[in-house]
Structure formats: structure tokens, C-alpha cells
TrEMBL record:
Coiled coil: none annotated. The lineage of its organism: Eukaryota, Viridiplantae, Streptophyta, Embryophyta, Tracheophyta. This is Actin-interacting protein 1-2. Keywords: Repeat, WD repeat. The keyword Repeat applies. InterPro entries: WD40/YVTN_repeat-like_dom_sf, WD40_repeat_CS, WD40_repeat_dom_sf, WD40_rpt.
């Protein structure tokens, strides 16, 4: 059995896309047709094999092979086409775009056969889409900070099933930019780097949340007397994370905008004076106090 690796590269002012044999690194075909950056690609998982791509030129392209060659362009979107995904059964594929639309195409011909309903649809750019294992539903995420589950019917029309709301404060970091439907898990990723995992069989249940630092971690402090025992970490961008020992991510505690945290330490006393004219912040972290020293950029 031959395995193929479908790869797209983001390079300013250029587009690069390649299909490589997994076992030899040799390319299999030519992929012309885009005039701007390719943003997403996918491989039809059933015979006859096809490749689909999409990008910043508002196009989705359809390729036949192997060896793969350009067949035709799809010009149905009016803005960036951000993501393209084949259904697991190969019968159809879907594109989502910054024009807030999700369009569905025949998997063998690339002809448009349906679309997601505008009723209850996204009000911002749709950044990602993922099919469920039986090819009858899709998950979409958007700049409007919502994730939506859609039922895909035999006529390829899509009707809203439910809207998922991820925890957050409604800021730019809460925009949703990635998603994956993996078995019973609906994995949703925000711009701020937070992963929210919903259960497909029980979507009303609170999601499991994971996150981490996006910048260099500058300091750690351990609270051995707390219950549960907790570690706080701070990074170069001023983000403070709480970690529960033996569990992992426990939440984002605070953020000091436009301020870098130089270091911090656990202290026993509640009253702390400024030292050497450095700006100092004392907060209560659990049942003990935590001392922060800030340096301004």
C-alpha cells in the first residue's frame, strides 16, 4: 500500500503545495492554479483519488490523479477560503470561508451540491471545519467565537444542530480558529491557544479545557500547602497560568496588559512594600499570597 503526504506551505507572497510519497519523498504530480497563498488541502480517502486545495485567492482547486494534475477551479466564494475537508467516506467535501459560507461538493466531480443553511449560521469568518466519523455531520468554528454542529442530509444541505459556547471573556483571544471531530471528542482551538474538548454524545456537558503559554516562561512558583497543590507560571507576555499537581492545566488567573512579569514568588505575609522602587503586585493565590515584580517593555 502506498501512502501519500499532502502538504501546503505558508510563504509570504508565494504559494507552495506538494504531494509527496511517504516512503520516498518524491512528488506525485503538479499543483498549479493558485495565484496566492494556499491555506488548506485534503486528500480523498477512497478511490478514485483526488486532491482539493483552497486559498487566499478565493478559489478551491480540484486535482485528479495520481499522478495528480489540475482539473478545475471552484469560484463560489467571495473571500478567503480558509479550510477544505473531505468526508471520511469520500462522497463529498466541504469548504468554509471568510464570507461566512460553508459549501458542499461532490467528492468525485467537484461539482457543488449543497451548502450550510444561513439560518443560525456564523456571523464572522469561518476558519475551520471537520467531519464526524460517519460523514453525516460537520463541526465549524468562527471568528464570532462560536462552534456549530451541522447535520448534513442526503441532498447535501446542512442544517444547524446546535451551537457550542466555549468558556472565555469575549476578547480577541477567544476567537475560534481550529477544530477536529475525533470519535466522540469535539476539539476546538481558540486564537489564544486554549483547547476546549466537548463530548459529541453529551455536548451539554462542560468542556474539558487545556491551555499553555505561547511565549517564553519566565518564572514558576509552587504552593505545597495548598489544596489541591498548585503551581503558578508566568510568561514573557504577562500571562499567568495555574497548574494543579497531578492533573495539569487549572486555568488562566490574570493578565497584565502591555506589561511583562519579571519574576514572582510565594510569600507568607500579606503586606509587601515596594523594593528598590520596582513596581510590586501582591495577590491572593489560593490561601497564600504571591508576589509579582513587573518590568515594563
Amino acid at each position: 500500500m502506498t501512502f501519500y503526504l499532502c502538504v501546503h506551505f505558508f510563504i509570504y507572497l508565494f504559494k507552495l503545495f506538494a504531494l509527496c510519497r511517504w516512503d520516498s519523498d518524491s512528488t506525485v504530480g503538479e499543483f498549479d492554479g493558485h495565484s496566492k497563498r494556499v491555506l488548506s488541502c485534503d486528500f480523498k480517502p477512497t478511490r478514485p483519488f483526488h486532491i482539493v486545495t483552497c486559498g487566499e485567492d478565493f478559489l478551491a482547486n480540484f486535482y485528479e490523479g495520481p499522478p495528480f494534475k489540475f482539473k478545475h477551479s471552484i469560484r463560489d466564494h467571495s473571500n478567503f477560503v480558509n479550510c477544505i475537508r473531505y468526508a471520511p467516506d469520500g462522497s463529498k467535501f466541504i469548504t468554509v470561508s471568510s464570507d461566512k459560507k460553508g459549501l458542499i461538493y461532490d467528492g468525485k466531480t467537484g461539482e457543488k451540491i449543497g451548502e450550510l443553511s444561513t439560518e443560525g449560521g456564523h456571523t464572522g469568518s469561518i476558519y475551520a471545519v471537520s467531519w464526524n466519523p460517519d460523514s453525516k455531520q460537520v463541526l465549524t468554528v468562527s471568528a464570532d467565537k462560536y462552534a456549530k454542529v451541522w447535520d448534513i442530509f442526503e441532498d447535501a444541505s446542512g442544517k444547524l444542530n446546535r451551537t457550542l459556547v466555549c468558556p472565555g471573556i469575549g476578547g480577541v483571544d477567544d476567537m475560534l480558529v481550529g477544530c477536529l471531530w475525533q470519535n466522540d471528542h469535539l476539539v476546538i482551538v481558540s486564537l489564544g491557544g486554549t483547547f476546549n474538548v466537548f463530548s459529541a454524545s453529551n455536548p451539554d456537558q462542560e468542556p474539558v479545557t487545556f491551555a499553555g503559554h505561547l511565549k517564553t516562561v519566565r518564572s514558576l512558583v509552587f504552593f505545597p500547602q495548598s489544596s489541591p497543590r498548585t503551581i503558578l507560571s508566568t510568561s514573557y507576555d504577562g500571562v499567568i497560568m495555574r497548574w494543579i499537581l497531578g492533573v495539569g492545566f487549572g486555568g488562566r488567573l490574570m493578565r497584565k496588559n502591555n506589561t511583562q512579569i519579571k519574576c514572582f514568588a510565594a510569600v507568607e505575609e500579606e503586606l509587601v512594600r515596594k523594593i528598590n522602587r520596582l513596581p510590586i503586585l501582591l495577590i491572593k493565590a489560593l490561601r497564600v499570597a504571591c508576589l509579582f515584580s513587573f518590568c515594563h517593555p
